[in-house]
Amino acid sequence: MSLSKYWPLVNFFSTSTTNPHSFALIILNRPISPNCLVFKNLFKQANIRVCADGGANELYQTFVVDLKNKALENNESESFIPDYICGDLDSLLPEVEEYYKNKQVPIRHVQDQDSTDLTKSLQLIEELETSKNSVEKKLDIVVYGGIGGRFDHSLATIQFLYHIHDRLALVYSPKNITILLESGLKHTIHLPSQSQGNSCGLLPIGGPVTQCSTSGFRWNLTKQALEFGGLVSSSNIADNQTLVVDLTESNTNLPKKYPLVFNIEIKDDKH
């Protein structure tokens, strides 16, 4: 079993028209700027695009309503049609539902109240992967808009990351990238150029991390314990484009090991 994991974040946030990684984009119910180049690139490069319930409202507002109100050419709206809308649909506006139905977008209504619309969207993606009988590895997951707004919603997004172990998953919210680093692994994070030199943090949200060593940061750690009420590595700076976070431990008899949340700013002048 490999004790290392590579995070090629640079590939997801490149301005290149091609991405060597196959991924699904899940759009949550958070505002989208029509000038956000990062979002536009993610949408165009994604293999599957799913609006989680009210995420469809935001896509519609940005690329249909706002463009019409500004009397702009509306050809761009045709480039931002999701592949699916999924959730309990308690937030989906009637006019938005009608618009996307007319665009032949499948709408999946899942009544289960024990899971979030984000989780429902992941389950849909898993079903699509199975139905296509693909021999390729599972799609990576990019979540748009999961951090910000209501605090409990932000924590629910972090909770979502805790349940994904078999693929790369990251959350992009305007100005921020968030990933979850599993315990027992040495993580190498290749940052996009828009993030090098920016503020970042290592946050032990789920529980204490007994040993963490890093390189590439302004203030590096050496076998340091991290926990709320103790040391939390917030407001650090990424001095290099490649960061290393080592969460391996020689003592295998330690109590339960917890993952570590990594968050970093990403600059997008037109977010």
Detailed description of the structure:
The chain is of the alpha/beta class. Helix content is 24%, strand content 27%. The chain is built from six helices and 15 strands. It has helices at residues 9-12, 37-45, 55-69, 94-102, 117-131, 151-162; strands at residues 4-7, 23-27, 48-52, 84-87, 107-109, 140-144, 169-173, 176-181, 186-190, 199-203, 209-215, 224-226, 233-237, 242-246, 260-265. A ten-stranded mixed β-sheet has the order 5-4-3-2-6-7-8-15-10-13, sandwiched between helices. It has a five-stranded mixed β-sheet with strand order 1-9-14-11-12, with no helix packed on it. The protein is globular. The mean pLDDT is 87.
* Helicity range: 10-25%
Strand content: 25-35%
By secondary-structure content and strand pairing, the structural class works out as alpha/beta
Number of helices: 6
The CA-CA distance between the termini, in Å, is 40 Å
Q: Give the overall shape, derived from the CA principal axes.
A: globular
Mean pLDDT: 87
Low-confidence stretches: none
Strand order of the largest sheet: 5-4-3-2-6-7-8-15-10-13
Query: Based on DSSP secondary structure assignment, what is the total number of beta strands?
Result: 15
